[in-house]
Write a structure and sequence with these properties.
The chain is an alpha+beta fold. It has 14 helices and 33 strands. The chain starts with a strand and ends in a 5-residue tail after the last helix.
Length: 630
């Protein structure tokens, strides 16, 4: 049997409720009992008493435990109307269309409208649907923005769990147990267009499952607080401290109230024009969002990004990843606070910093105009960049790893600090630069271990430093900046190791220096080596160890391709900054305080000349300084 019911307008529907009904497929079930097909038509709400408007032409429920009044209550704001969703039974619930209108964010523009079509729930038993489905959705808004989105569906869908999470039942759910809300989410893609300004298409998306627990506050209360805050800001008045306190605690609670499996999205493709009217395209490959955990936001990864401006330039990369963020410590600090006001945030902001694991970028290429120099361009490629952070202490990462590899920079005539002509003559037309460092604070030993402070110039050479700082106490991470600064000044240097590999830059540097000084390369090398040896003895004193180190340093400067220099403080506590500062004006200040081991090895390396260099401007200037031939 089929019953069709008509009824007058109910009370004003809050926009949050309207969106919930459309987007989670849940605004359709209710209370009562019957075993028939029920059709309710002509449901509207909001236009007469506010800026929001809802229109639902019809709702059909097959073999459901409901009545017509309860169906309308879902859309018109009847208190407690959502309670029956947790115990709903129905063969199917079908809503051909839900249309929601709300004010535009652009002042003076008409309303924005979202329309959901073919909303269905099937085989609902005790508030759990075997499947839920939205056939499509359309959007229109200010500035001629329109959107069209394809089919969205989920498998198992627990309406009661969703109500518990949002706190939308008359009697809020209790407990902290996570319950699966839905599984097997699928999105078939869509498009978005802004008049003639831009046009985008979006690929498909999938999510394995979403679970949640009841929130401590319901969304209706929070929606009212948000409206109060927005009204205060619009009026130019201060948001009430009690409102700020409640909102912050709500968001902290929400951060811990849900989890999910990883989500995948096949990407997007957009086109438009830049500010100069040039055709512009922006596209991506797959986007992956890791699984959410309580108080933990997952890594987000974007592949195959390409932004190209026709006849102007491009920016491309193979992958960008924003790594995991852990809010656990921040949430704990908020929960422990007795009062959340401006004074609290000023004094404790470091405690609220999330523990970010870092970020990475791979396969970057860029070719764009130089905004600082007309007619010039910024070009280059980057193999990879990675920042890995961890062991946060009072909002500061105590473990840091940074690496940059294969930054390819073309050599140009503007690089006046380089022997450009000599490099080009030897086939070196670009710099292949890699950099890196690792820092790790160890609380037990009060040390900071520094590894792989790397400067690698590819075909030219490589320098690597490592070492240990002592007296690194927890005061380095203090809230008080004066205390942290004093702790930094009390650091000591326990040891440092420097490894240098000359792959050809030495011969080029000495040749350029010799030309600048008007000397032969051999004479110039001898002079530089002698000066370095003298400085070594001045620092270390006239000991057999110092003489050996000075000799090895001289061997390297005279052509050996490798040098390893290890300096260790004789005092296990390390050399203080005061001693190091004193050595700047008095090298003898370090005499007797350091152990030095130096080792030079390897045959000289020279880059072969492929073509006779064409004198550059700086070469010609050096030639003018050179003495005339006798």
């Amino acid at each position: 049997m089929t019953r069709t019911a008509f009824a007058p307008l109910g009370r004003r529907l809050r926009p949050m409720r309207a969106f919930l009904l459309g987007t989670v497929f849940a605004g359709i079930a209710v209370t009562g009992a019957s075993a028939e097909t029920l059709s309710v038509t002509g449901i509207t709400q909001g236009a007469a008493d506010g800026p929001y408007e809802l229109s639902v032409p019809s709702v059909e429920v097959v073999d459901g435990n409901l009545n017509e009044g309860a169906v309308r209550g879902l859309f018109t704001g009847t208190p407690g109307a959502f309670d029956a969703l947790a115990t709903l039974n129905a063969k199917s619930v079908t809503i051909p269309e839900i249309k929601v209108s709300y004010p535009s964010y652009v002042e003076g523009a008409g309303p924005s409208v979202i329309t959901y079509r073919d909303v269905t729930l099937t085989d609902v038993a005790n508030g759990v649907a075997a499947a839920a489905h939205v056939g499509s959705a359309d959007f229109s808004g200010a500035e001629d923005v329109t959107g069209s989105f394809g089919e969205m569906s989920v498998g198992r869908f627990d309406l009661g769990a969703l109500l518990g999470f949002y706190g939308l039942s008359a009697a809020p759910a209790a407990g902290t147990e996570m319950k699966e809300v839905y599984a097997d989410f699928k999105f078939s893609g869509g498009s978005l267009k802004g008049g003639d300004a831009f046009s985008c298409t979006f690929g498909t998306g999938e999510l394995g499952g979403f679970s949640a627990r009841p929130l401590k506050q319901n969304f209706t209360e929070i929606n009212n607080l948000v409206m109060e805050a927005e009204a205060a800001q619009k009026a130019g008045t201060e948001v009430a401290p009690e409102t700020v306190d409640k909102l912050v605690r709500f968001y902290a609670d929400m951060f811990t109230a849900f989890s999910s499996t990883p989500m995948t999205f096949t990407g997007f493709d957009c086109s438009g024009k830049d500010e100069k009217g040039n055709p512009l395209t922006v596209a991506s490959g797959p986007i992956t969002v890791g699984g959410f955990e309580p108080a933990v936001y997952p890594a987000i990864s974007l592949d195959d990004f390409d932004m190209t401006v026709e006849n102007d330039g491009f920016l491309k990369f193979g992958n960008f990843t924003w790594k995991k963020m852990d809010f656990t410590a921040a949430v704990a600090a908020i929960e422990a606070a007795t009062k959340l006001d401006e004074a609290y945030f000023t004094a404790n902001w470091r405690k609220l910093v999330p523990a970010l694991d870092g970020m990475s970028l791979a396969d970057l290429s860029i070719d764009v105009p130089d905004p600082e120099a007309s007619g010039k361009r910024i070009t280059g490629t980057l193999g990879a960049f990675d920042a890995t952070l961890g062991n946060y202490v009072n909002g500061i990462p105590a473990s840091i790893g940074l690496s940059l590899s294969n930054f390819i920079l073309p050599i140009t005539a503007e690089m006046t600090d380089l022997p450009v002509a000599d490099l080009l003559a030897r086939g070196v037309d670009k710099l292949d630069i890699s950099l890196g460092t690792k820092l790790a604070w160890d609380q037990a030993s009060s040390t900071i271990k520094v590894d792989d402070v790397l400067i690698d110039m590819g075909a030219l050479g490589r320098i690597n430093l490592s070492g240990t700082f002592g007296n690194a106490t927890e005061a380095l991470f203090a809230d008080n900046t004066d205390e942290a600064t004093m702790a930094a000044m009390l650091l000591t240097l326990q040891d440092v190791t420097i490894e240098v590999e000359d792959r050809g830059i030495g011969s080029l540097a000495f040749a350029a220096g010799a030309k600048e000084a008007g000397q032969s390369e051999a004479s110039f090398r001898t002079a530089v080596a002698g000066m370095a040896q003298g400085m070594t003895l001045a620092f270390l004193g006239n000991t057999s160890e110092a003489l050996t180190a000075a000799q090895q340093l001289g061997t390297f400067l005279n052509g050996a391709s490798h040098l390893k220099l290890t300096i260790t403080s004789k005092d296990a506590a390390g050399i203080g900054l005061a001693d190091l500062a004193a050595a700047e004006t008095n090298p003898a200040a370090l005499a007797g305080k350091l152990n030095v081991v130096a080792e030079a090895s390897g045959e000289p390396v020279e880059l072969p000349v492929l073509d006779a260099p064409v004198p550059s401007t700086q070469d010609e200037k050096r030639d003018l300084k050179a003495p005339a031939a006798q």
